[in-house]
Specification:
The structure is a single chain. This protein has a 4-stranded antiparallel beta sheet. A hairpin with a 7-residue loop joins strand 3 and strand 4. The longest helix has 12 residues. The chain has 2 helices and 4 strands. It starts with 7 loop residues before the first strand and ends with a helix.
């Protein structure tokens, strides 16, 4: 990996709720950006699919599929990619600022 491709920029913001049903306490949006070669437009729709990889011999295609599953199913959030970023790639995760209450702390961890 060239030295100029090793930087990752992470930033976050709090967003007051525009969707009271989904995010009653607002949400937190996390942006993750790198300065790598980017993601070609023809595969952007596939990158969150389980089994999809660009690493031919050594990739299992689970990384971004797992991220999407955890963000959407476990935390009731959303994940996506920002298009037309140059150089590199930028992803976003939107999570509720507060999780729904649970019956016990043990359930929240399972």
């Amino acid at each position: 990996i060239p030295p100029d491709h090793r930087h990752i920029i992470i930033r976050g913001i709090y967003k007051p709720s525009e969707d009271i049903q989904r995010y009653p306490h607002g949400s937190v949006i996390i942006y993750i950006r790198d300065k790598g070669p980017g993601i070609p437009p023809d595969i952007r729709q596939k990158i969150f699919e389980r089994g999809f990889t660009t690493k031919k011999q050594k990739g299992l295609g689970l990384g971004l599929a797992l991220v999407k599953f955890v963000v959407e199913d476990a935390y009731h959030g959303q994940v996506g990619i920002i298009e037309n970023v140059s150089p590199g790639s930028e992803f976003w995760l939107q999570l509720p600022a507060a999780l729904p209450p649970t019956k016990s702390g043990k359930e929240a961890l399972s």
